[in-house]
Each structure stands twice: as structure tokens, then as C-alpha cells.
Write a sequence for this structure.
């Protein structure tokens, strides 16, 4: 049996390889959206932040968790929205043309 | 009970689904046709992960969670919808920073909630973090704090450099490498020591603050020596760090979705970093520690670069050359972004096309301040992306091009990269614009670019210099062309 650390390590290493495999040959046009979109994904920490802030009492731990939710949600919402805005521009003139 | 069983079997499935959708979404982001859908899929994956977590939490105290979600969403949405496309590098830098901050804050909250507060309240016997959380989570907590805070402060410095609040030139402190090694060592050793020793809650708390302060300083120290033109590398690298920090948080919380999505972001950031380094023909170490372009500041810019035979032209003369041109290539650089000239360039292109010329754009991979910077700006101005040609595609075409208009670019069109072995940029792939019939070079002055070196293109026989702000110059040419 593997401990949770080892399982985590397996998952981590395999996910890095998946990342390298799926992101080969990105056209330069998509460099910025890929970066901001990927960045929004890193806001997944919001999941951990919610667990950390799950309390009624405003202790330091809860407040740190709340601050984490704020920064992570900014990251998620801001990241996905701004990426969509950029990508809409890339697709936009296609419609005008055809 | 029944309910609990159901949820405990659904939640892992939701996490798996979320991880798979993140991968699908990210893959979508690498193709123009599927990019927008890919982004939406990734956002949906995030929603599933959040729902899964809420289900897993069971009893939810909404006060703080909701407050955080509402504030974060509002700020994020307002900034994302209002930000100018020209400010996109700053925006991405800030997003990287907030991602890093979130990971560090989660790790800190763990330590406070599980160790410091229970021990202060006497609810928990004194013991090391390691004995309470386990060895691996204790170490990954320290790593999450370290990587997260370095990402935060590094991104803030990158933001300040990009927005002009801090000088773009590298700031080189004496002994900076030693200071950095010491700071990194101090944060790591103190951090690991703090989580493995049995400490008073108070001492643990102070020690953690020292670790946070040291890694914040490290982030600042790592980015201030890097020049503005190397920002594409720094931004992609910080992007990678923000993913790694999320992954570390995943180890802390033993949550595979975090580990997977963090690792994906880490990998994608690293790939972009690699692409940028290749485009500059430099190693990552050279970009990070080289202090490239610093001589320029020390020599004061002056007499080192003597130019002979530079010929300054008016927009009218440029328009006359363009009148007979059948093929025109625009080569944009950071100057286009500064002057916000993308719309004017597009208008000039449309006017030239109307007169029968074939117009394309040659894009250097590191033109601008972030990966893909020029592409975003030109897309905003409605330039079809089919007209944006990569360096390898456009380089053989310059021979058959009548006129190249270089708008605010310098080092990426410097022939020294191919001709002078002694040049610091020798070997860097550049756009071979000098092969074209005529090169119209729009630049505010003869000042050197980030590499701080002379550009022989300025004095070439087929080069016409237009010394003006990019937008004004293009506007001037446009007016003249319309008058022809």
C-alpha cells in the first residue's frame, strides 16, 4: 500500500507529464490566453480556502482562509473572464468576415 | 447516514470529473478554434470542484465563505471586464500574484487552525507541526508558503515594472546572488525547523512570520534584477510558480484535484518559459541571473553608439514609397503597445489593402512584454489572425516584400544577431527585415533597445527612419496615403 504522500507524488508527476504532452506547439496567438486561462485554473486553491474558512468564529485561521478565498476567487473569476474576452476578439472578426 | 454514504461516493467522482475537464479545457486552449470552449470547460471544471468541496464539507458556515466568494468575484469581474488590452501584461502579473497569495494563505491558515490556535487555547498538547499533521504535509506546507509568497512579491514587482511604477531597467544590487541564496536557505531551514520542532505557539507564530518575510523579500530580489524586455520569461515563470504553489497546497490538504490542476499549470508555464528562452537564444539561468542590458544604464547611453548615414524621412516620403508597394509587412514591437497604435496600424493596413497591396504582420515571439502580447493587441484591433505570421514563416518572405514597416521594435530586427559574433544578441533568432526592398523604421529616437546595443539597420541604405511616436507616425502616413 502507498501512503497519501506517495499517491500524491504519483499524481503530481503524471499530471506534469500530461501537461507537457497536451501543451505542445501552442500557436503564438494563444500564448497570452493560455497563460491567463492556466492561471485561472491555478485558482483551484479556492477549494482549500473554503475548507480553511469554514467556521463561524473570526479566528486568525478563519480570516486567513477568507483572505485566501478572496485572492483565489479573484484569480478564478478574473482569469476566466479576461481569457474569454481575449478569445472573443480572436473569434470575433471571423463572424464579420463570413 | 444514508445521505453521508451517498455523498462520500459522489464527491470523489466529481473531483475526478473536474480533473479530467481541466485537462480537456487546457488542451482546448492550445488550438485557436477550440480555445474559447476550452476556457469555458475549465471554468466549468472549477465549478464542479467547488460543488464537490461544498458537499464534502457537510456542515457549512457560510458567513466567511460567502463574503470571500462575493468580494473575490466582484473584484475579479470588474478588473477583468474593465482592463485595457494594452494593460494585459500587468493584469496577468497580478493574477499570478493573487494565485500565489491564495496558496500561501491556505497553508498559513492550516497552521493557525490546526496548531497555533488549539495550542494557545490549551485544547491541544504541545507538539511539533510534524507530529500533528504528519511529516509530508508539514514539509509541503512550508513549500506552499514559500512558493506562494515568492510568486506574490515577484508578481507585484513585475506588475510595477510593467506599469512603469518601477524603472524597467534591471536593478543590480551588489552581492545579490549571495543574498538570494541566503534568503532561500533561511526560509527553507527556518520553515522546516519550525514545523519539525516542538515549539511554543507564540514562537512558532513569530518564526512563520519571519519565513513569510524572508520569502517575500526573496521574490522581490529575484525580479528586480530582470529587465523589462525579459518580462515575457518572468511572467511565464511566475505563472508556473503559481501552479506549483497550488499543487503544494494539494499535498497539504491531500487533495488530488489541487495537485493535478496545479501540476498542469506548472507544466504549461514552464513550456511557455522555454519557448520564450529559445526565442531569445538564452538559457533560463542567463535570463534570471544575467542582469541583461544593465551596461546601458551604467554607461549612460551616450557616445557608445555612433551612427553614420542615418536618414530621417517624413511621413509624406514614406507614403510615396508605400504607394507603389504590392506587399507590405508590419513588424510590431513594444513601442506599438506603449503608443497604443494597434488600431491606427490596422487602419493603415486596410487603406493599403484597398489600394491593392498584400498586407501581413511579422510577429517575433518575444516582441512586447508577455508571450503573445502583439497578437492580443492586433486581435483587439480586428486584425485577422491568419495575417499574423510567425518568425519562421515570414523570414523567407522578406526577400519578396516591397516594404516593411517596423513599428516600435528594435532588437528583434537587429542584423547583428546574425552578422556580429561579438554581439551580446548574436545567435538570437530575429526577423530578417533588411532583406525587404525598403524598411520604414518608426522609432522615437536612436536610443538602443533592451540589449543596449547599436542597430546597424538604422544606417542601412534601404532604411527610412521616421522619428516619431508610433501612433502619430502611422497616423501621419495614413493621412498622406489617403491624400495620394
Amino acid at each position: 500500500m502507498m501512503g497519501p504522500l506517495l499517491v500524491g507524488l504519483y499524481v503530481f508527476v503524471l499530471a506534469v507529464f500530461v501537461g507537457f504532452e497536451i501543451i505542445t506547439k501552442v500557436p503564438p496567438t494563444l500564448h497570452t490566453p493560455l497563460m491567463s486561462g492556466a492561471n485561472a485554473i491555478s485558482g483551484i486553491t479556492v477549494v482549500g480556502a473554503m475548507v480553511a474558512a469554514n467556521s463561524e468564529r473570526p479566528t486568525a485561521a478563519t480570516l486567513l482562509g477568507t483572505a485566501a478565498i478572496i485572492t483565489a476567487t479573484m484569480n478564478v473569476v478574473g482569469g476566466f473572464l479576461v481569457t474569454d474576452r481575449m478569445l472573443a476578439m480572436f473569434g470575433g472578426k471571423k463572424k464579420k468576415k463570413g | 447516514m444514508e445521505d453521508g454514504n451517498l455523498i462520500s461516493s459522489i464527491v470523489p467522482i466529481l473531483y475526478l470529473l473536474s480533473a479530467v475537464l481541466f485537462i480537456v479545457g487546457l488542451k482546448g486552449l492550445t488550438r485557436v478554434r477550440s480555445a474559447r470552449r476550452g476556457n469555458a470547460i475549465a471554468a466549468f471544471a472549477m465549478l464542479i470542484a467547488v460543488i464537490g468541496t461544498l458537499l464534502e464539507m457537510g456542515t457549512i458556515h457560510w458567513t466567511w465563505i460567502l463574503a470571500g466568494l462575493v468580494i473575490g468575484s466582484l473584484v475579479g469581474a470588474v478588473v477583468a471586464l474593465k482592463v485595457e488590452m494594452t494593460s494585459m501584461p500587468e493584469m496577468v502579473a497580478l493574477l499570478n500574484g493573487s494565485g500565489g497569495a491564495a496558496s500561501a494563505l491556505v497553508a498559513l491558515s492550516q497552521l493557525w487552525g490546526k496548531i497555533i490556535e488549539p495550542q494557545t487555547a490549551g485544547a491541544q498538547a504541545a507538539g511539533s507541526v510534524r507530529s500533528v499533521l504528519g511529516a509530508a504535509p508539514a514539509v509541503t506546507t512550508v513549500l506552499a508558503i514559500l512558493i506562494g509568497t515568492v510568486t506574490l512579491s515577484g508578481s507585484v514587482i513585475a506588475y510595477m515594472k510593467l506599469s512603469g511604477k518601477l524603472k524597467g531597467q534591471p536593478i543590480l544590487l551588489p552581492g545579490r546572488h549571495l543574498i538570494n541564496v541566503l534568503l532561500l536557505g533561511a526560509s527553507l531551514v527556518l520553515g522546516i525547523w519550525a514545523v519539525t520542532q516542538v515549539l511554543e505557539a507564540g514562537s512558532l507564530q513569530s518564526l512563520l512570520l519571519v519565513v513569510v518575510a524572508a520569502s517575500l523579500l526573496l521574490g522581490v530580489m529575484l525580479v528586480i534584477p530582470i529587465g523589462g524586455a525579459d518580462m515575457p520569461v518572468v511572467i511565464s515563470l511566475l505563472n508556473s510558480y503559481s501552479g506549483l504553489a497550488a499543487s503544494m497546497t494539494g499535498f497539504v490538504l491531500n487533495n488530488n484535484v489541487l495537485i493535478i490542476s496545479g501540476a498542469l499549470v506548472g507544466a504549461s508555464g514552464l513550456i511557455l518559459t522555454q519557448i520564450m528562452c529559445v526565442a531569445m537564444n538564452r538559457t533560463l539561468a542567463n535570463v534570471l541571473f544575467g542582469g541583461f542590458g544593465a551596461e546601458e544604464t551604467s554607461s549612460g547611453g551616450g557616445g557608445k553608439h555612433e551612427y553614420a548615414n542615418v536618414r530621417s524621412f517624413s511621413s509624406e516620403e514614406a507614403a510615396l514609397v508605400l504607394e507603389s508597394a504590392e506587399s507590405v509587412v508590419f513588424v510590431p514591437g513594444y513601442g506599438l503597445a506603449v503608443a497604443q497604435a494597434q488600431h491606427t496600424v490596422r487602419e493603415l493596413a486596410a487603406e493599403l489593402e484597398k489600394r491593392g497591396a498584400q498586407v501581413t504582420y511579422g510577429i517575433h515571439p518575444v516582441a512586447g512584454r508577455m508571450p503573445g502580447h502583439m497578437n492580443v493587441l492586433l486581435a483587439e484591433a480586428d486584425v485577422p489572425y491568419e495575417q499574423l505570421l510567425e518568425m519562421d514563416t515570414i523570414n523567407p518572405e522578406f526577400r519578396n516584400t516591397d516594404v516593411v514597416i517596423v513599428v516600435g521594435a528594435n532588437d528583434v530586427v537587429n542584423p547583428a544577431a546574425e552578422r556580429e559574433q561579438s554581439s551580446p544578441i548574436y545567435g538570437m533568432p530575429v526577423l530578417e527585415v533588411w532583406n525587404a526592398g525598403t524598411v520604414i523604421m518608426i522609432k522615437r529616437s536612436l536610443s538602443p533597445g533592451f540589449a543596449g546595443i547599436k542597430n546597424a539597420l538604422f544606417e542601412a541604405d534601404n532604411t527610412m527612419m521616421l522619428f516619431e511616436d508610433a501612433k502619430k507616425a502611422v497616423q501621419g502616413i495614413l493621412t498622406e496615403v489617403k491624400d495620394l
Notes: The longest helix of chain B spans residues 88-120. Chain B touches chain A through 114 residues (CB under 8 Å). Residues 294-303 of chain B have pLDDT under 50 and may be disordered.
